[in-house]
Amino acid sequence: MTTVLQETRDGGVHVITLNRPERLNAVTDELVRDLTDALTAAGQDTVRAVVLTGSGRAFCSGHDLKEPNSDRDLNDTRERLERLQELTRLVRELRAPVIAAVEGWAVGAGCELALACDLAVAASDARFAFPEVGVGLTVTNGVTQLLGPVLGPQRAKRLVLTGERFSGEQAHQWGLVSHLADPRSALPDALALAESIAQQPPVATALAKRLIDAGMGVDLQEALQLEVELSLLIDPTESGAQAVPR
Q1: Which of 79, 112, 227, 238 is catalytic?
Q2: Is 112 a catalytic residue?
Q3: Which of 15, 78, 104, 111 has the smallest number of Cβ neighbours within 10 A?
Q4: Which helix (H) or strand (E) holds 182?
Q5: CB–CB of 130/143 below 8 Å?
């Protein structure tokens, strides 16, 4: 059984589903490889929006602690962590916005993956946590950029250092997820959101995503210049505001 399912629906919405429900979609090397392939496939021009979700009772319960860990060599460990971090890079670099649909647990790497998405729809009773410190590990996969700027260093450290669980409702209140759904409604709500975004001009949508991400890491003058440069990539006379050929 494949660990990741994918399908492109009418209108250009690409749905990626983590598919290890018997293990609450826990992360293994195989799942990382399959998800890397799925996110790469979502880079096609025909894809207008991506929804990332989990099958069964959870979004993703973090690393599968039952998976044999044979890479005692530091280089092997580094490569494994970098493969995991590549998922965050792929999500951020996709032209199409990526929307997480979170039901049940989103823990550790699963929590990081959900928060790496451009938007997240979480059920009010979803449960998030960063348990790494409690089992002698530390956070990876970009969490240093995903938490602090939104929550501030004090609350970010509190969640990471204590492993404290927080709900979808709390995540929404804190600005970690963009939309709050009723229990068992995260996926249909995320699909509706994706369908709405997919109807927008695709080049303008891709550039807006890129601008917001890039603009947060530069000063005002650089952000203003970037806005001008990327705006020049759009030809408003063409149907759907396509990019000017280069």
Answers
A1: 112
A2: yes
A3: 78
A4: none
A5: yes
Q: Give one DSSP letter per residue of 152-170, joined into a string.
A: -HHHHHHHHHH---EEHHH
Q: What is the mean pLDDT of residues 51-67?
A: 93
User: Which residue of the set 22, 30, 86, 132 is catalytic?
Assistant: 132
Strands (E), 92-226: 98-102, 105-107, 119-123, 127-129, 166-167, 179-181
What letter does residue 245 receive in the DSSP assignment? Answer: P
Structure tokens at 4: 């990741």
Q: What distance in Å separates the CA atoms of residue 16 and residue 197, rounded to the nearest whole number?
A: 17
What is the distance of C-alpha 75 from the center of its chain? 26
Model confidence, pTM: 0.91
CATH architecture of 4-198: Alpha-Beta Complex (3.90)
Gap between the Cα atoms of 4 and 38, Å rounded: 8
Domain boundaries, the chain: 4-198, 200-246
Band (72; pLDDT cuts 50, 70, 90): low
Residue count of the chain: 246
